[in-house]
Amino acid sequence: MDARNALFSHPDPYDLKGTGKLFIRAMRECCIYHYIHCPEYREILDSMRFDPYEIKKPSDIAALPFLPTVFLKRHRIYSMPQYRMPIKATSSGTGGVYSRIGFDTKGLYCGLKMVLKVFGLRGIVSPQPCNYVILGYKPHKGNHTAIAKTAYGYTLLTPAVSRTFALKFRDGEYKPDLEGVAAAVVRNSRSPFPTRFIGFPAYTWFMLKIMDERGMNVKLPKGSKIMLGGGWKQFYKEQVDKTEMYALAKKVLDIDEENIIESYGAAEHPILYCDCRNHHFHIPVYSRVIIRDVNTLEPLGYGRVGLVNLITPMVYGTPIQSIVTDDLGIMHRADECGCGVRSPYLEIIGRAGFTDVKTCAAGAEEILKAAGGDAK
Amino acid sequence: MILFRGKLYPTEKQNELLGILEKRIDHTLAHGSLDRETVISALDGLAARTALGEFDQLIAQVAPDDVLHYKQAAITAMKRENLELRLSVELPDSIMKNSGTGCLMHSVRPLGTLFHIAAGNAEGLPAMSVLEGLITGNVNILKLPSADSGLTIRILGELIQSAPELADHLYVFDTPSSDIEAMKRMAEMADGIVVWGGETAVKAVRALAPAGVKLIEWGHRLGFAYISGYTDEQAELSALAKHIAETGQLLCSSCQVIYLDTYDKNETDRFAERFLPYLERAADIYLHTDVGAAAQLSVRRYCERLEKAAGLSAQKGRHTYYGRNCSVTVCGDSTPELSGMYANVLVKRLPAEHILPVLRRKKGELQTAGLICTPERRAELTEILLRSGVNRVMKAGDMSAAFTGEAHDGEYPLRRYIRNTDIEF
């Protein structure tokens, strides 16, 4: 069995110590593959004098040149011919520019094993049929975003009785239909089967607010769950205290906090980070995370804010084995959580960017966007 | 928060208040008048209180690292002697005094109502724009920039407290730029729209302005340094580096490009290597305190290096010298342009003989030149820069310094906020 397959078949998804050597071997194999098959990636490693054949210890993984997501958004680079990649997913493109990642068949198979194992631990994979409410995009042939594909994929984890979508494709664009969703929820409350909500936290929050304002409090069947993923995107301002959201979910839908499950991931790093019962994203064996200093890009230890460098040998279609996202995060030691999972966890605290910085052009962009123009 | 006739209202009241605003303004225009002395003494009073430290805490909230600088700038802008100096330069008696020609009497009146759309790139700028409107006797509607820290409403609120008669001349709304309808309503009540911002902002405002309203545009301009020999190389390059790092290259007067008076292709590289340590030292001192911004800049520089390595760079004909939190990019062309900002400067060749034809191509976009040269060439180079369309020629370290009585982008602001009237006897 190759190292990647062995890693993704490891019985305990949070046994980082027990998979240390295997992870390095899988990374070496993956990097060598991309080095041979992706000319642009080879140029990068060569220019930084990095030899993928010499990946032998954790510090070699830290030294491996990483690609920022902004690089992947600007340049489409692949390590396989297009026909060998059955799925190509794009990032959701906050800000209009998106990356396009190709997945190889074996990688997808690894991903499936990962999802079943990680979600299995949280009781999400089950033969119990469910009604699904997707607070995200309804699949459409023009939508290749990873988030739409993932959300739909999640409805396959149990038999689906019904699927309701909050964002529907009408007149050439996606429009939110929160009213329709609220009505479906009331309908589902009379169903013998539990309901599962899947989607963006912001839309979930808006739905709960709307239902609460209208006094639409329902009791959903036992086993109903809310699965949050995809971050807050353009709704950063609306970001609410998680506890406030849990309280409202209990009030409006009668769903307990333990049945609210948040996940973290990215098109450029398709690893499933599922929160524990204390709502922390522990690092699974399939990946490693390095927090990097915002000025020097050097690795930082626990407890310090920096750029989030996500590392995995899962994908052979595109050289995304080490990427840096726009997220800012902190790593915490496993024992700071107390849930019993023996792996450190990642806390996302914000995004890189000039949110607080004021330039002459900033106001202009706002006005222009509002006026329907192009802000570039 | 909305400031309406001296009282604070929550944002939700916006449309209700806009509904009665025209009536209020008409009433003020028909019956009110703003005595210039009232405005000056209210501002001077505020300057004195600022000097005594009354607003130190407030300023510290907005610019914790720069309290003294902002404090001094506020005092300079508001104290009586400076206001009177500005008025005597911008609106001298020769312009303001009623005079007659034949059967005509000429007099100067305020424009009427000014609608200010201020940029958020400099703290205090929105308030400054309104102060200019008040001192020329206008009614002022201000749309706050979204990044406003709350300082503007505090300053203007204090001003009304010390001179209640200003209340009818001052309306501040925190309308978001996306609320085009509300902005159109404000624009319709105005005789002049004062807009601060880049080309895109100006275009957007032109689109919503009714015909016949005077547009007063303070657009985004470019600054650059020009080097032709040195008087004291170390001191001059240190001052230039400090200016670049301190302003983050965010201001219209900030240096984006450093021009060298040379034909020698290698000179730009030699200069970049020599200048980088200066810029590094300055960038260390004025390092970005915001983690998000620092992260974005580091990733951007790193990404440029990857692109270069992978042969995917869009920047053909350029190469970059990277330093700690800064960079110097050597370019083959000589066009003035915006740099990557935040201590990422461009270096280009521009022999003195070519200054005018090259800069003229960007006329109307140039503002400040920081000139470093030998003393004997200063007069000659200053003249050619002015002829090329540059409006300010400064020492390199003072490119963004403000001087009382100076023009702004080649004009005296106060003169744009008044109108000349004629009455036949």
Could you explain how this protein is built, in words?
The complex is a heterodimer of chains A (376) and B (425). Chain A is α/β, with parallel strands linked by helices and 376 residues long. Chain A folds into two domains: 3-103 and 283-351, Rossmann fold, CATH 3.40.50; 112-264, Rossmann fold (3-Layer(aba) Sandwich), CATH 3.40.50. Chain A contains eleven helices and 16 strands. Chain A has helices at 3-8, 20-37, 39-47, 58-63, 69-74, 105-121, 146-154, 178-189, 201-213, 242-253, 360-370, and strands at 67-68, 87-90, 100-103, 130-137, 160-170, 173-176, 195-199, 225-228, 260-266, 269-274, 281-282, 288-292, 299-300, 306-311, 322-332, 345-351. In chain A, the strands form three sheets. In chain A, strands 1, 11, 12, 13, 14, 15 and 16 form a seven-stranded mixed beta sheet that branches. The longest helix of chain A is centred in the N-terminal third of the chain and has 18 residues, at 20-37. Chain A is globular. Chain A starts with a helix and ends in a 6-residue tail after the last helix. With 425 residues, chain B is of the alpha/beta class. Chain B folds into two domains: 2-220 and 409-424, 3-Layer(aba) Sandwich (Aldehyde Dehydrogenase, Chain A, domain 1); 222-398, Aldehyde Dehydrogenase, Chain A, domain 2 (3-Layer(aba) Sandwich). Chain B is 44% helix and 21% strand. Chain B has 16 helices and 17 strands. Chain B has helices spanning 14-31, 36-51, 56-62, 67-78, 80-90, 93-96, 125-135, 151-162, 180-188, 199-208, 233-247, 265-285, 291-309, 355-360, 378-387, 413-416; strands at 2-4, 7-9, 99-101, 104-110, 113-117, 139-143, 170-173, 192-197, 214-219, 222-228, 255-260, 318-323, 326-331, 344-349, 366-373, 392-394, 418-424. In chain B, the strands form three sheets. Chain B has a seven-stranded mixed beta sheet with strand order 2-1-7-6-5-8-9, sandwiched between helices. A seven-stranded mixed beta sheet of chain B has the order 12-13-14-11-10-15-16, with helices on both faces. In chain B, a hairpin with a 2-residue loop joins strand 1 (2-4) and strand 2 (7-9). Chain B is globular, with a radius of gyration of 24 Å.
